[in-house]
Amino acid sequence: MEEQIELFTIGFTQKNAQKFFETLKKSGVQRVIDTRLNNISQLAGFTKKTDLEYFLKIIGNIEYVHILDLAPTKDILDEYKKNKGDWGVYEKKFLQLLANRKIEKKVSPLLIDGACLLCSEPTPHNCHRRLVAEYLNEKWGNIKICHL
């Protein structure tokens, strides 16, 4: 029987830095995998790429990785965000993008195990990090997903 992979997901909006970093530490996350298209945005000061990488290492000895293949394209994102798009359409397009990119072959179970997918959405419901986690679980079949 295959070892079960533990995969976390977290969004940073509606969380202050203390809550964000303490949640990651308490859960035992070993690495944060940034799934944002734009990881240098001003949205949340503590999650800009270079700052986030530093804070994760210092506060929790947590590794930081940015994987653009796990992010939506600008077109898909813009259509949904700016044009108040339909979640069902976004989900379908994003899952097709993941399939086209064959992300299950580009990320290894070793990288994913103990990792936390990061994006900005406060909850996983209408968020691509949940779609990435579920897609990988569908392909590999041995992932326990925990939304922080």
UniProtKB/TrEMBL annotation:
Pfam families the record matches: DUF488
Highest rank taxon of the organism: Bacteria
Organism: Chamaesiphon minutus (strain ATCC 27169 / PCC 6605)
Entry protein name: DUF488 domain-containing protein
Lineage, uppermost ranks: Bacteria, Bacillati, Cyanobacteriota, Cyanophyceae, Gomontiellales
